[in-house]
Amino acid sequence: MNLLNYLDRNVIFALFEPIKRDLLLTDTQLGWLGSAYILVFSVAALPLGVISDLRSRKHVIAGGVAVWSAFTALGGLVRSFWQLFICRAAVGVGEAAFGPASSSMIADYFPGKNRAVAMSILSAGIPIGGVLGLLLGAWLETIYGWRVAFMAVGLPGFLCAVLVTRLVDPTRPEAPMTFRSAMAELEIGLRGFVRQFLALIIMTVVGLVAAWILTTRYGADSKADAAVLATAMAIGLALTIWRWVRLVKANRRDETIFTPELESAVDDLLAAGRQVLATPTLVYAFVAGAAISFGMNGIVGWGPTYMTRTFDLTSSEGAILLGKWGLLAGTLGALAGGVIADGLGRYSDRARVWTVGLGLLTGGPLAIYLMTVRDLDTFVPIFALAFFCLSWYNGPMAAVIFDVVPARIGATVSGAYLLFIHLAGDAIALPLVGALSDRFGLDRAMLLLPAVALIGGLVMLGALRTVVRDRTRAATAD
Fold this sequence. Notes:
mainly alpha; 80% helix
């Protein structure tokens, strides 16, 4: 399912050029199509993480897979930028349900020394699915067109949505999962839900109205509509998160470790917020994760288009070239990260942090150099080595997060992590690189991405001072 998650997420990046041609879009608009699901995914991950901690995780996963599959397929029927933007945004809702719940279940299945390996196996779906999204998207687009590509990759998820209901949750009792019961567990009705996201809702509506007016007046090719909508949504998200942070600080208690007496989802949410603020390792992981997300997802998103323009390849040739080498290097890197982290764990309690940092500090400079290479025979081996090293972080990073938080709020904290890293990371990177590309060219704009990922590796090494203490506190709380 994680493979399908990233396949459906990344397929659009192989289709940028034909979509741009058929829908008459700019690079900035392409960037926003890449960020559409990220914006919704980021906001939805936190409340869906809370629901996963309170209700049946497998039912949350099944619903999420069905939703993202449906809207991926619907992407093949659109006729305008805004219709595709909405479909890609809705894909984010389904994928937000999967991430926290699946990571939490794996962490509970493997609570001990093999956790990083287990999380790396789950994370191997990221490079495999992400690269298959590029390969299948390019192949299907060449034969049938980009619309059929969307519809074809969306179909397998419906089978997985049925199969996941047969999984056995390792620690949680079974409970029926309905929208009404989920809202009851959250202890907020429709009014409460609207109140929690009021700033985001208002600013999104304002942005949509303003964008529609600008599109009507200046035409669909204008960049002003996407800029205004993005600005309005960013303001709404900032105000929403600022309100949540104020609630966390206002309710902060002397004890910094979560206590099981908390019963409501609001208490769970506030406890997760307190846990992040009171756990230095999580602060390092959140900041580093945002920088890594900015760099890595930006490279994946714009990579096929970069290959097409830099090496004078077709969209299919660029995606396939990156895909076949990325599949091999990314899969081996994701698995190697877990093996290295748990292997070094026999000698150091900080091994998982070291693995994340060293992979990025090795792969980051290689990727920066890669952006200057114009010979295809030189580009391919450097790309494979850089992608191998940059893929180490997935499993060990997830293991570090679950190591330093009490198990009961693991999915909630994971949702908070996804919210932060995507809003502060690739939600910004994809449209920013598009805007810089329109002004300076894509080859120059891409240099920003590996540089930021390298900074993420440096930040993560700061957790070497705190991870042992924070892991001990979390084990005591459990």
